[in-house]
C-alpha cells in the first residue's frame, strides 16, 4: 500500500504540518492535499509554494467548525492531524480554549473520519507523560500530564483509540518528543533550539533556566515527517501509540555549547532560576516504533543543528 487519493493535513500551515504537506505533494499517487488551518500560529508563507497547484487546496478555517470539517473531509483517504494549541504556557492561561481546540476539535475530525473510513494519524506529544519516573520512557509508562496541554493531548489520544476499538477506525497516535527544524516560529514559546539558534546568530546571550542538566530528546522535523508517512501505511500501527524521538538524551547545557560552537557566536551562557513545572529528564524508548512501523530516525543532532543553523542564517526564519 502507498499513500494515495485525497489527504487532509490539519494545521498544515504550521511548523510540522507544512513539512508533511511538502512530502505529500511529492508523492505522485496523491491526488489532492487539503490543508485546514486558522493561521493562529501557522503562516500562509509556509505553504505559499503550493498555492496555484490543482492538487492543493487551502482552507483558512477552524477545526472546531463542524460544517467546514464535514465539507473538507468528503472522500478523504488519510488525515494527518497536526492542528492544536501546541503550547504549554498558553494552555495554562486558557485551558478552556486548549480543550476546545485539542480535544473537541479532534473529536470533530474523528467523527468525519469514521464516516469516510479515513486513516487517521494523530500528532500526540511526550507531554502526556509529565515527569517520567523511568527512563527511557516507554509507551506503557503511566501517563501523568502536568499541564492542560498534556492532558488535552492525552484525552485526544484516548478518543483516537476509542474510535479504533468502537468503530474500527484506522487511527495511530504518534507521541512526538522535542521537534526542531525550519519554520518553527521564533517567539517566547518556541522550542529551545529555535530560541538558542536565533539568539546566538543575533549575538545575544543564551539563557538557561536552572543548572542546564535537564535533558530532552530532540528530533529533526524531517524524521517526524517520515514517521507519519510510514505509520499511515502500516496496518499494524492502527490502534496503537508510539513514541517518536531519537532515543538520545541531550542536556540543555550540552545543547547550548553545541549551538555556540556551530554558529561560532561570541555569546555567554547565562543561568537564571529554574522554571516552575519544567520537567527534569526526558528521553524516548523508540523500540516499538522501530519494531512495528520500521522507522529509525536518520538525522543526528549535529547534522540537524547544522542544517537548521544554515537555514536561520540564510534569513529565511
Ligand atoms: N513542536 C514540537 O516539538 C511538538 C512536540 C510534540 C507534539 N507536537 C504536536 O505537533 C503538532 C504540530 O505542532 P507544531 O509544533 O507544528 O505547532 P504549530 O503551532 O506550528 O502548528 C499548529 C498549526 O495548527 C494551526 N491551528 C491551531 N489551532 C487551530 C484550529 N483551531 N483550527 C485550525 N488550525 C489550527 C495553527 O495555525 C498552526 O498552523 C501539534 O499537534 C503539537 O501538539 C509538537
Structure description:
By secondary structure, the chain is of the alpha/beta class. It has a domain at 5-180 and 219-247 and 283-297: 3-Layer(aba) Sandwich (Rossmann fold). Helix content is 38%, strand content 18%. Helix 1 (15-25) packs across helix 7 (221-232). It is globular, with a radius of gyration of 19 Å.
N to C succession of SSEs: EHEEHEHHEHEEHEEEHEEHEHH
- Return the CATH architecture of the domain at 5-180 and 219-247 and 283-297: 3-Layer(aba) Sandwich
Number of strands: 13
The neighbouring-strand order within the major sheet is 3-2-1-4-5-6-11
Quote the beta fraction: 15-25%
Q: How many strands, what sense, and barrel or not for the largest sheet?
A: 7 strands, parallel
Rg, rounded, reads: 19 Å
Total count of helical runs of at least 4 residues: 10
According to CATH, the homologous superfamily of the domain at 5-180 and 219-247 and 283-297 is NAD(P)-binding Rossmann-like Domain
Between the first and last Cα atoms, what is the distance in angstroms? 36 Å
Return the average pLDDT rounded to an integer. Answer: 97
Q: What would you call the structural class?
A: alpha/beta
Low-confidence sequence ranges: none
Bound molecules: nicotinamide-adenine-dinucleotide
Helix content: 25-40%
Shape: globular
The first-level CATH class name of the domain at 5-180 and 219-247 and 283-297: Alpha Beta
CATH level 3 topology of the domain at 5-180 and 219-247 and 283-297 = Rossmann fold
Amino acid at each position: 500500500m502507498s499513500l494515495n487519493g485525497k489527504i487532509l493535513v490539519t494545521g498544515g500551515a504550521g511548523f510540522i504540518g507544512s513539512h508533511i504537506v511538502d512530502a505529500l505533494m511529492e508523492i505522485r499517487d496523491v491526488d489532492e492535499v487539503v490543508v485546514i488551518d486558522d493561521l493562529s500560529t501557522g503562516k500562509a508563507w509556509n505553504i505559499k509554494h503550493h498555492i496555484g497547484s490543482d492538487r492543493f487546496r487551502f482552507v483558512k478555517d477552524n477545526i472546531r467548525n463542524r460544517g467546514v470539517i464535514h465539507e473538507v473531509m468528503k472522500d478523504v483517504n488519510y488525515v494527518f492531524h497536526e492542528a492544536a494549541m501546541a503550547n504549554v504556557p498558553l494552555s495554562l492561561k486558557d485551558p478552556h480554549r486548549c480543550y476546545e481546540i485539542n480535544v473537541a476539535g479532534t473529536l470533530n475530525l474523528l467523527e468525519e473520519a469514521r464516516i469516510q473510513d479515513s486513516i487517521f494519524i494523530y500528532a500526540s506529544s511526550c507531554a502526556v507523560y509529565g515527569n517520567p519516573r523511568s527512563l527511557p520512557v516507554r509507551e506503557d509508562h503511566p501517563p501523568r500530564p502536568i499541564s492542560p496541554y498534556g492532558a488535552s493531548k492525552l484525552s485526544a489520544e484516548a478518543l483516537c483509540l476509542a474510535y479504533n476499538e468502537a468503530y474500527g477506525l484506522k487511527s495511530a497516535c504518534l507521541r512526538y518528543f522535542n521537534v526542531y527544524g525550519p519554520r518553527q516560529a521564533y517567539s517566547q514559546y518556541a522550542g529551545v533550539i529555535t530560541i538558542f539558534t536565533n539568539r546566538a546568530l543575533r549575538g545575544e546571550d543564551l539563557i538557561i533556566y536552572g543548572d542546564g542538566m535537564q535533558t530532552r530528546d530532540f528530533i529533526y522535523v524531517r524524521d517526524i515527517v517520515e514517521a507519519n508517512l510510514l505509520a499511515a501505511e502500516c496496518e499494524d500501527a492502527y490502534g496503537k501509540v508510539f513514541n517518536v524521538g531519537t532515543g538520545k538524551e541531550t542536556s540543555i547545557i550540552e545543547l547550548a555549547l553545541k549551538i555556540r560552537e556551530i554558529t561560532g557566536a561570541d555569546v555567554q551562557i547565562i543561568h537564571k532560576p529554574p522554571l516552575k513545572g519544567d520537567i527534569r529528564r526526558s528521553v524516548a524508548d523508540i523500540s516499538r516504533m522501530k519494531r512495528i512501523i520500521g522507522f529509525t530516525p536518520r538525522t543526528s543532532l549535529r547534522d540537524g543543528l547544522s542544517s537548521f543553523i544554515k537555514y536561520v542564517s540564510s534569513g529565511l526564519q
